[in-house]
Amino acid sequence: MIGDGVESNYFSPFLVDSQGFSEGSAALTISLYGIFATIGSWFAGTLSAVLGARKVMLIGALSWVVFEAIFLTIGVQAGVHWVAVASYAIRGIGYPFFAYAFLVWVNLATPAHQRGSSVGWFWFAFGAGLPTLGSLLASFTIPMIGEVLTFWLGTVLIAVGAGVALLGIRDLRHAGPATQNGNGLAGFKHALTIIWRRPRVTAGAVVRLVNTTPNFALFVVAPFFFIHQIGFTQSQYLQIVTLVYTANIFANLAFGVIGDRFGWKRTVTWFGCVMSGIGVLALYYIPLWVGPNYLLTAICWAIFAIGLAGFVPLTALVPSMVPPAERGNALALYTLAAGLAAFLGPALVAVVGGAGRMELLIWIFAAMYLGGAPLCLYLSSSEDPGY
To answer: Which of 76, 249, 303, 373 has CB 3.0 to 4.6 Å from 279, enough for a Cys bridge?
Structure first.
């Protein structure tokens, strides 16, 4: 995830400043990427049940490396814009195939009483790479080797990480196909129909969509807002991102444990929805009022980032609301929502009007979070420690 996170907070300015894209075209490119990420997220869970998580992870890693190489050689270095857009978009299936197939693997292999903590560790590693350590690495490598070579460095890290995971994990008992789904066609049918067969799972997926849609939108507009409007340098901005998402990754661990004690639903409602709603307002208005104050900006953004971690127990809650035979399909819908957020965030930016309409975007984000809190009341499971 470090390799994927390297570009997360400079990709949009790179397209605009170095490749001649308009801000709207850059947002559209990232939205197309989000469509493929959404497709990859949906099929990551379903294909893991049909083919096995390990095979899906391999497919994800290979597709990431191949299409990133096409993007950099033909799209960027040769200047063929349509190839850049197409290859970057298709690369979108890579990280959800790899990461969310592994999430299925973790859920299948972990006992119920440890599930909140185990998914906390998953999101700890996920958030450590995307965007935290990735952004930190980029803040040092861009001044030294430039933006294009930083992309290549990310590709190398993807290959190394895939090798470590696929060759180093020895638990093969849970890595294969799930027998309860029968043949491949039946598996896809069950994954599709769960949307209306299990409405509480669907509600949980909506809450998951609320979780990171604003965060993916911020990846597009925040660089323009904090660098061009507030007055931070690119390095300062990337370092702030690193600080606040470092807080997020440790909060992921904390809320996994808190959820196992305080209750999964309660944690998601109060620390996830409510805290994120307050935090997203603070990260906009406080810097706008005080200017490029490094410490205050980092604190305000950290409140939001810690709130994002409050959604961690949702990963344990959603599959627990269905019988064991349906949990792979519940996770498929959950990962679909996670991937759809990567599309809806940039798409929302494009529709609303980019960084020039930042205040409206922020209020939309706050409404999403605060509106998600009542929906959490519908998410009940007898396995929830707070039930």
So the answer is: 303
In a domain, 387, yes or no: no
The model's pTM: 0.81
Backbone region of residue 176 per phi and psi (left: phi > 0; alpha: psi in -120 to 50; beta: other values): beta
pLDDT tens string 42-53 = 888 888 878 888
User: What residue numbers bound the domain in which 49 lies?
Assistant: 2-376
Q: How far apart are CA 104 and CA 107, in angstroms?
A: 5
Burial class, 295, CB count within 10 angstroms (exposed 0-12 / middle 13-18 / buried 19+): exposed
Q: Give the CATH number for residue 85.
A: 1.20.1250.20
Number of domains in the chain: 1
- Classify residue 283: in a domain, yes or no: yes
Alpha helix segments (H runs only) across 169-233: 184-197, 199-223
Q: What tens digit of pLDDT does each residue of 155-198 get? A: 999 999 999 999 998 887 766 676 555 555 666 677 778 889 99
